[in-house]
């Protein structure tokens, strides 16, 4: 059953990879038809495809969001605290900023 969404839903590489591996991206798309990912998370996911770990044709047409200058400044402030990979960091920052 689809739900209404008031804030953007950003998928990190873990979500992209896990649902791709079980060939069930439809579950995510039914719940959040307007979801997206960050450019960094998408690059990380594409690396998994290039290494042969993930199926190639699983997330066709998923929008990607690039961090703007303001987001990059916030991300840099939190980088040391989060200790996270760039894709996770950018998804978290965008979610925190309410984008």
Which terms would index this structure?
mainly alpha; 99 residues; 5 helices; single chain; three-stranded parallel sheet; disordered C terminus
State the assembly state of the protein chains.
single chain
**Tertiary shape:** globular
**Poorly predicted regions:** 92-99
Percentage of residues in helical conformation:
40-55%
Whole-number mean pLDDT = 79
Q: What Rg, in angstroms, do the CA atoms define?
A: 14 Å
What's the arrangement of secondary structure elements?
Elements (H helix, E strand, L loop, with lengths): L9 E2 L1 H9 L3 H7 L4 E3 H12 L13 E2 L3 H14 L3 H11 L3
Parallel strand pairs: 1-2, 2-3
Plain-language structure description:
The model is unreliable at 92-99 (pLDDT under 50). The radius of gyration is 14 Å and the shape is globular. The relative contact order is 0.21. Strand 2, helix 3 (39-50) and strand 3 (64-65) form a beta-alpha-beta unit. It has helices at residues 13-21, 25-31, 39-50, 69-82, 86-96, and strands at 10-11, 36-38, 64-65. The longest helix is centred in the C-terminal third of the chain and has 14 residues, at 69-82. By secondary structure, the protein is mainly α.
């Amino acid at each position: 059953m689809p739900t209404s969404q008031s804030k953007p839903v950003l998928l990190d590489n873990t979500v992209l990879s896990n649902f791709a591996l079980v060939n069930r991206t439809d579950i995510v798309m039914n719940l959040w038809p307007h979801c997206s990912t960050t450019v960094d998370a998408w690059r990380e996911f594409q690396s998994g495809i290039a290494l042969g770990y993930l199926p190639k044709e699983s997330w066709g047409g998923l929008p990607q969001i690039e961090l703007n200058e303001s987001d990059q400044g916030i991300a840099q402030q939190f980088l040391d605290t989060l200790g996270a990979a760039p894709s996770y960091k950018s998804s978290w920052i965008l979610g925190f900023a309410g984008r």
